[in-house]
Amino acid sequence: MKILKFGGTSVGSAENINKVISILEQQSKDTNIAVVVSAVGGITDKLLEAANLACNKDLEYKQTYNAIWSQHSKVIEGLFENSDHDKNLKKSHEALYDLISEKLNELKSLLDGIYLINELSPKTKDKLLSFGEALSSTIIYHTLKSRQVDVAYKNAQELIVTDSNFNNATVNFEITNINIQLYFNSNSNAIVLLPGFVSKSVHGEITTLGRGGSDYTAAIIAAAIDADELQIWTDVSGMYTTNPKLVKQAAPIVELSYQEAVELSHFGAKVLYPPTVMPVLKKKIPIVIKNTLDPEALGTTITENTQPNGSPVKGISNIENIALLTLQGNGMVGVPGFGKRLFETLAQEKINIVLITQSSSEHSICFGISDNDAKRAKEVIDTVFEYEIQLLKIDPIIVETDLSIIAVIGDKMKNHQGISGKMFSTLGKNNVNIRAIAQGASERNISAIIHKNDVKKALNSLHEQFFEIKTKQINLFITGVGNVGERLIEQIHQQKSYLKENFKISLKIAGLSNSRTMVVNDDGINLKHWKQQLENGEKASLKGFLNHVKKLNLRNSVFVDITANDAVANIYGDYLKHSISVVACNKIACSGNIEYYNELKILSRQYNAAFLFETNVGAGLPVIDTLNHLVTSGDKINTIQAVLSGSLNFIFNNFNAETTFYDVVKQAQEEGYTEPDPRIDLSGIDVARKVLILARESGHALELSDLESDNFLTNDAMEAASVEDFFKTLIKDETYYQSLFKSAEDKNCQLKFVAEFNNGKAKVGLQEIPEGHPFYNLKGKDNIVMFYTQRYPEQPMIIKGAGAGADVTASGLFADIIRIANN
Ligand code: ADP
Ligand code: ASP
Ligand code: MG
Question: What is the rounded distance in angstroms from the CA atom of residue 549 to the CA atom of residue 552?
Answer without folding.
Answer: 5
